[in-house]
Design brief:
alpha/beta; Rossmann fold; single chain; two-stranded antiparallel ribbon; six-stranded parallel β-sheet; about 220 residues
C-alpha cells in the first residue's frame, strides 16, 4: 500500500485571497483600519497563530488583555472564514485528476496546519473530499507540521506498515519536507506553491506540475 500525505494550502489549492479577505473583514468588525490584501497574503500561509499575530498585531498589543483579545480574534476569524471559505479559492490545475487517480489504489491524506473543520469544508466545496482517506488539521493533535506527529497518528489509524508500505509527503513548504523526512517518507516539493524554494531540507524530488507526481511513482 502507498500512503500519500498532501499539504493543503499552496499544494492542492490557493486560498490566500479568501484568507486575507476574512482577515480584513474581521479587522473592519473590530473597528480597525483595513490592510492591503497583498500584504495580508504574506501572513496567511504560516499557520493560524502567525496569521493572528501578524494580521491583528495592532489589536493584540495590549499585553494585559492579550489572551482575551486573542480568543476574540480567533473566534471571529474562524467563524467568518468558515462561512466564506471558498469564494476565490481554486484548485491548482490537474489536482483533482491526480487525486482521483491516486485514490483508486492508494490512501490519500491531507496534512495541514489549517483547522480540521475548515480543511474538510474547503475540500468538500472544491470537490476533493471524496478522494481523501483522512484529514489531519492543525488542531487535530498536540503538534502540527513541521512535526511528524500528524503523519504518525493518521498512519497508525490506517494501519501503515513501515516494512511493506511506502509513504510520500507532498508539499510546497520547508515544514512539509521536514515533517516528511522525520516520518521517513519520500518527500516531494511542489514548485507551483506559495514558496519559491523548499528551504534548507532538500526534498527527494521536485515537481513542477501535479501530473509529474504520477510519473515519479
Amino acid at each position: 500500500m502507498r500512503f500519500f500525505f498532501f499539504d493543503l494550502d499552496g499544494t492542492l489549492e490557493d486560498s490566500r485571497e479568501d484568507m486575507a479577505n476574512s482577515a480584513n473583514a474581521v479587522r473592519e468588525n473590530l473597528g480597525l483600519a483595513l490592510k492591503d490584501v497583498e500584504i495580508l497574503k504574506t501572513h496567511v500561509n504560516k499557520g493560524m497563530h502567525e496569521l493572528y499575530m501578524n494580521c491583528f498585531e495592532d489589536y493584540l498589543q495590549n499585553k494585559e488583555n492579550f489572551n482575551t483579545l486573542y480568543e476574540q480574534v480567533k473566534q471571529k476569524y474562524e467563524t467568518h472564514y468558515l462561512e466564506n471559505i471558498c469564494i476565490k479559492t481554486k484548485c491548482y490545475s490537474d489536482i483533482k485528476e491526480v487525486l482521483k487517480i491516486l485514490s483508486q489504489k492508494d490512501k490519500v491524506f491531507v496534512i495541514t496546519n489549517k483547522p480540521e473543520l475548515h480543511s474538510k469544508e474547503l475540500l468538500k466545496k472544491l470537490g476533493l473530499l471524496e478522494y481523501i482517506t483522512d484529514v489531519m488539521g492543525g488542531d487535530s493533535c498536540a503538534e502540527m507540521k513541521p512535526s511528524s506527529l500528524p503523519l504518525k497518528i493518521v498512519s497508525q489509524r490506517h494501519n501503515f506498515c513501515s516494512l511493506s508500505d511506502k509513504a510520500f509527503m507532498v508539499g510546497d513548504s520547508s515544514g512539509d519536507i521536514k515533517a516528511g523526512k522525520s516520518f521517513g517518507a519520500s518527500t516531494i516539493w511542489c514548485s507551483w506553491g506559495y514558496n519559491s524554494a523548499p528551504g534548507s531540507d532538500l526534498p527527494d524530488f521536485t515537481v513542477n506540475t501535479p501530473k509529474e507526481i504520477l510519473s515519479l511513482i
